[in-house]
Amino acid sequence: MTITAVGFDLDETLAVPTRERTAILADATADADAPPLSREAYLDVHSRHLTSDSRTPIFEELLSEYDTEADPESLANAYRREIADALVPVPGAEPFLQGLRTKYRVGLLTNGPRTAQRDKLTTLGWTDAFDVALVTGDLDAGKPDPVAFASLLDELGSAPGETAYVGDDVDADIAGADNAGLVPIQVLYEGGPEPSPRAAAHVSRAELIDRLPELLEEL
């Protein structure tokens, strides 16, 4: 097997928040005069809106459970601002991506509404950091659906068995990539998902920048 292309997840793989996501959500709801919302409920509803244009439908569904006059769009905007203020790249990510692109086709496939995820790329200064940057808000399906990974392969122009996919989520990233025929590499970190036996390799996020090129050579 020779790897010719590499796809990446974004959140918790190449970019991390400087504050707990529960605190980010709490600050956003306070700013929008909305009732407190749990992170678990948010993630559950978010998983049903991976191909949405914005987070507004997510918050519409969440707020429908409450007697509140809070505006879902205002809450979506507040949450987007809070995320932008907190999101930072893994140290050394930009030159790391530039280096990989000298040898591989490099892509991004990230779950989430178009506006939300594209705004993250703008905040990070990564609008041109990849050969291909796909957001499921622009697609017909989100991870782990094979359709999402097929879109990545089409844009990269690579075969599944020659394409590594690097991510942290056991279901969306690792199982999804494996089911689509890609070569999954799981990123591990404290408090994150347990190692998946379906990953072809595992690497700690702290060592991702230094170790991934070697792992790609070994696969």
UniProtKB/TrEMBL annotation:
Keyword Hydrolase: yes
Domain of life: Archaea
Cofactor(s) listed in the protein's UniProt record: Mg(2+)
Transmembrane regions listed in the UniProt entry: none
Keywords: Hydrolase, Magnesium, Metal-binding
GO BP of this protein: small molecule metabolic process
A molecular-function term among this protein's GO annotations: metal ion binding
Statement: the UniProt record of this protein carries the keyword Hydrolase: yes
Enzyme Commission number, as recorded: 3.1.3.-
Database matches in PANTHER family: GLYCERALDEHYDE 3-PHOSPHATE PHOSPHATASE, N-ACYLNEURAMINATE-9-PHOSPHATASE
Family: Belongs to the HAD-like hydrolase superfamily.
UniProt protein name: HAD family hydrolase
